Amino acid sequence: MTEVEGVTEVVTAVADTADAPIAVVGASAAGLAAAEALRRSGWRGPLTLIGDEPHLPYDRPPLSKQLLHGTWEAERLQLRTAEQLAPLDLDLRLGTRATGLDAATRTLTLDGGEQLACAGVIVATGVAARTLPGADKIPGVHTLRTLDDALALRGALAGAGSRLVIVGNGVLGCEAAAVARELGHDVTLVGRDPVPMEAAVGTEFGELLGELHRARGVRLLTADVDGFTVTDDGAHVTGVRLAGEEGAELPADAVLLAIGSEPAVRWLHGDPALDTTDGLRCDAYCAAAPGIYAAGDVARWDHPVHGRPLRFEHRMNATEQGMAAARNLLAELAAEGAHAPDDAPERRPFAPVPYFWSDQYDVKIQAYGLTGGADRAETTVLDRAGCRAVTLFGHGDHATGVLAAGIPARQVRALRAVIAQPLPWEEARERIRAATAPA
Amino acid sequence: MKITLDADKCCAAGQCVLIAPEVFDQRDEDGVVVLLDAEPPAAQHDAVHEAAAICPAAVIEVHS
């Protein structure tokens, strides 16, 4: 509300942007990248960064790798020191949850009840770990999404030779299995589908990964989980019950549920203008509504090259999309006259080459483009025992993604160029073969 | 501009080499970043800032 000559004027439209902040909701990789890009691109107005965890922005990929292993301590995951954050002049709200957004007026509601009228909002609330009914109340059953989750699981694995049952054989489950084996624990990896990480890496490479895990001593099982057994006093988990087979139970000292995640969009359900089906739906510019953008794991946007809405839970995408959303929001605010930029930016479609990596034992897996949902895939195994391979993925007549494991860096970069734009399948095959030929 | 690296954190994504190939390279054996020019000329500064911002392991620090 603004006082005009003694008359109280109710502001129904967008907040008077002279002193309204841009708010970034979510203080992890995407939110931090957005906040930094806003400043680098010349936003001098107030900038609010809201995070529901109590920690300064930290990096998540090491949670299931170096942090779980114990080679890194929590401080090493911090993405910026307080000193590095200072020049951003943030209104930093940690331990604060946004509970609602009115897109038309760009007004956030925070968990304390505060209403924050904004010039623009970037939604970067990420995803939350999926769990099973009642599982969060059983001591010893873990999920792995936050730093606190990872420290709790690490604590549970502090003793020698624990029996760890990992439910879910996707990327997270596989990475955690590798670390737990390296730490000497007894590890069982239970998946609904027999091939680990199949959705992300395809059947053939997934089978190779399965062999790698078996060779390192992981027990791989295919089953649905029916529930858990606990001590008589309910104080700790004792096992995982499998569906189907009568009485089948896996004894466990600790359980990790790695059964995927759900976009953190429940707080947006109050505004019917926003489509929150599997993430916050955005256009090619990462805009969900005028002045409202999204970035990172939570954003489902129209990828201009692939021509359909996509959502990635990849570390690289978090940063790239945070930067893109920030720049496009500022370009929109400049067009509205709410922001006076140094140059005259234009909104640009966000068209990245998707990238993800995974580290398991001494094998680095890297992939560019679309590997999930492919309708064809061809794997060239270079060294079976060493898990060295290249897989090309395609949709119809075009190659759209490539995965490499145990390949020299220079060759991996060459693979990226092959699928940066969809190429005819045969041409892509030839180029992959040339790029990975021994020198 | 002066660049420092925390190369132990490098995850070998190689984005810095794609963005600023005259400043960064990767070791062929494990893909870990190599600094070619710790004090690059002004023409490289935008690319270096972009590489530092995009690095998915927060390895690159730029001092002005």
SSE topology sketch:
The complex is a heterodimer of chains A (439) and B (64).
Chain A: E1 2-4, E2 7-9, E3 22-25, H1 29-40, E4 47-51, H2 66-69, H3 82-85, E5 91-94, E6 98-102, E7 107-110, E8 115-117, E9 120-123, E10 127-129, E11 141-142, H4 147-156, E12 163-167, H5 171-182, E13 186-191, H6 198-201, H7 203-215, E14 219-222, E15 225-230, E16 237-242, E17 249-251, E18 254-257, E19 261-263, E20 280-282, E21 287-289, E22 292-294, E23 299-303, E24 308-310, H8 315-336, E25 355-360, E26 363-369, E27 376-383, E28 388-395, E29 398-405, H9 409-419, E30 423-424, H10 425-435
Helix pairs in contact in A: 1-8, 9-10
Chain B: E1 2-5, H1 15-19, E2 24-26, E3 33-35, H2 45-54, E4 60-63
Antiparallel strand pairs in B: 1-4, 2-3
Question: Count of DSSP E strands of chain A?
Answer: 30
Q: Proportion of β residues of chain A?
A: 25-35%
Q: What is the H/E order of chain B?
A: EHEEHE
| Strand order in space, largest sheet of chain B | 1-4
Radius of gyration of chain B: 10 Å
Q: Label the structural class of chain A.
A: alpha/beta
Strand arrangement within the widest β-sheet of chain A reads 5-4-3-9-22-21
Q: What is the average of the pLDDT values of chain B?
A: 95
Oligomeric state of the chains in view: heterodimer
Low-confidence stretches of chain A: 1-13
The biggest chain-chain interface is: A-B, 27 and 21 residues
Q: What is the strand content of chain B?
A: 15-25%
Q: What helical percentage do the residues of chain B reach? A: 10-25%
Largest sheet of chain A: 6 strands, mixed
Radius of gyration of chain A: 23 Å
List keywords for this structure.
heterodimer; A: 439 residues; alpha/beta; six-stranded mixed beta sheet; six-stranded antiparallel beta sheet; 30 strands; disordered N terminus; B: 64 residues; alpha+beta; 4 strands; 23% helix; globular
